């Protein structure tokens, strides 16, 4: 395993042994990667996603690096879809988990009080926006962010007595039925969501593909005005909702940050009409965007925050934090068998405290700015990079067809096949990344917050090589199509 300070220029090719492998007379080595992948394809459902496009078999991991069963080392810029804020097997996280295991403490306690839970809650309150932490309640939901979204919406409906919910185009809130109804991607919604009787879909101010065809401040203003009109116009045909749900940065939607002024306007409008604002911070929380929480960029304090991924230190955990005045639930209003995961709470507390102690949010902001500067330089050379956007270490590159006709605002059509080729080129060079956004044409980078400077340089160098390879391929293909 390469150290974080020395990323491999060329991945190793020696076979990877399992931890503790003593050679020919010791424990058996893992099955060859090809056999494991073939068995996975034969046994697992057709709904699997990452495994289809990232055909590797991880056997060891440390920091920003994964070693596959093929013996190759990979720089992990997916980080469990943003879950591994401190990277793989961080010493602080492992120590916290071992302490619980060695203590003999129960691992499964439903929602009973334990010293581990008490310590986690204390760490969480230390990190929250002070205005919210001063008078809030914490609800432990099931193990996923989707369940926490469901809980947050149910909470708002109970507190307000209203049913409707406002959500946004491009949104992603999870795969359970209620969370899926809020999600914007038609391909994943349609088979499961029979109707949206209580949902109003609002236009999110996309900086490259403005839903109003205006762009920039005009598009942001139109989106904000649309929300105000729906809530204040007695002829809008839309009832005041139970909640508005928003991501400070749309992740799966293509790394689209909510403009600060727009988010402040949304907060003001919801407050004026007594509508709880739910911030889905599942992917943006705990330093990912360069501030502790995504809403901090706009100076906004929501009524409800949904937290998962990094909050569990890499283990399954999801919580809802909300203003105490909303706590009108009756006993058992929202439960879940695995809401008392003690190992996740210990790992989560260690992660939160390490992020605070090492000021990793500021580190993500500084490093993210450097990476964005490099990417912008690459964009000047590679017109297939339609837009570079993101915040902190949550970055996206919109891949477009530079030979197509742009729209009225200069945006080029998405190029999903080129994006897939770029992802494959990166993987062949030892970098794990994933796609998202419209037509899955946005290359997303979510490296650990602990990414070292030389690892960042290695990433940028490799990305530049992959872009060159994709551009050469695209040029050759176009010449062949033209008969040259």
TrEMBL record:
| Cofactor(s) needed for function | pyridoxal 5'-phosphate
Pro residues bias: start-end ranges: 1-10
Annotated region Disordered: the residues are 1-32
Renumbered to this chain, the signal peptide range is none
Q: Molecular function (GO) terms listed?
A: diaminobutyrate-2-oxoglutarate transaminase activity; pyridoxal phosphate binding
User: Which residues lie in Low complexity bias regions?
Assistant: 11-32
User: Which SUPFAM superfamilies is this protein grouped with?
Assistant: PLP-dependent transferases
Class in the EC hierarchy, top level? transferase
Coiled-coil-forming residues are none
NCBIfam families the UniProt entry points to? dat
Q: What is this protein called?
A: Diaminobutyrate--2-oxoglutarate transaminase
Q: Which organism is it from?
A: Catenulispora acidiphila (strain DSM 44928 / JCM 14897 / NBRC 102108 / NRRL B-24433 / ID139908)
Q: What is the lineage of its organism?
A: Bacteria, Bacillati, Actinomycetota, Actinomycetes, Catenulisporales
